[in-house]
Amino acid sequence: MIEPGQSPRRHRGRTARDEAAEQTRQKILDAAMVEFGAKGYSGARTAGIAARAGVNQQLIAYYFGGKQGLLDELRRRWSTRQDAAVPAESTFAESLRAYLDLTLDHMDWARLVVWQALGDWSGGEESRETQRQRLEEGVRRTRDRQQAGELTDAVSPEFVVLLAHLVAFAPVAMPQIVQDLLGVAPDSPDYRQLCREQLTTLLTPAECPETQETG
């Protein structure tokens, strides 16, 4: 309780120095995401990241241990964001909407994923195993939805997960083809809505039309 005449005290454990350090860390992470997206992990340089963030290059080593540490922290934060955006109880339509928005609202991350798909992978077997586990969880959820009658079982759950990834990353990997085939801008809300409607229509059992998304 603050007595009359007393000044409010800063919350213990959170000082101005702590806040400044967190702001610096965030600036470095934001800059790293742009650099990794533009140049890939191998092409990005800590000097370029520091210059973009407007900080001393030594701070990258101080806060993250180097370029690999930066990537590891970005992956950790992305995993947390993805879990929050797509809860386990989501329907397929809800999950697809969230995954499209999450991917296409963060194009630098999406570009980094494409770089990794082309062979610019860093992080070793542990990182690959984390990715495999996430994909397996997606397949498990899809199989559960099929067994519940939400999705058709005429398509393998693995292929359903692949389709969701393909439509999410097509605007990043092949924007011209998206534009020419569909006649919509790859980064537009129209593309996202079209993907949701078409995939839901393709994968909804004929006897359950009420589960199809209408808008």
Describe this structure in words.
The chain is an all-alpha fold and 215 residues long. The protein folds into 2 domains: 13-75, Arc Repressor Mutant, subunit A (Orthogonal Bundle), CATH 1.10.10.60; 86-205, Tetracycline Repressor, domain 2, CATH 1.10.357. Helix content is 70%, strand content 0%. It contains 10 helices and no strands. The protein has helices spanning 16-43, 46-53, 58-64, 67-85, 92-104, 107-117, 124-147, 157-173, 175-182, 189-203. α7 crosses α8. The radius of gyration is 21 Å and the shape is elongated.
- SS class: mainly alpha
The appropriate CATH architecture of the largest domain is Orthogonal Bundle
Number of strands: 0
Q: What profile does the largest beta sheet have? A: none
| Order of SSEs | HHHHHHHHHH
Helix content: 55-70%
Total of helices? 10
Distance between the termini: 52 Å
GO molecular function, one term: DNA binding
GO biological process, one term: regulation of DNA-templated transcription
Domain HTH tetR-type: 22-82
Region (Disordered): 1-22, 125-149
List the topology elements:
Elements: H1 16-43, H2 46-53, H3 58-64, H4 67-85, H5 92-104, H6 107-117, H7 124-147, H8 157-173, H9 175-182, H10 189-203
Helix pairs in contact: 1-2, 1-4, 1-6, 5-8, 5-10, 7-8, 8-9, 8-10
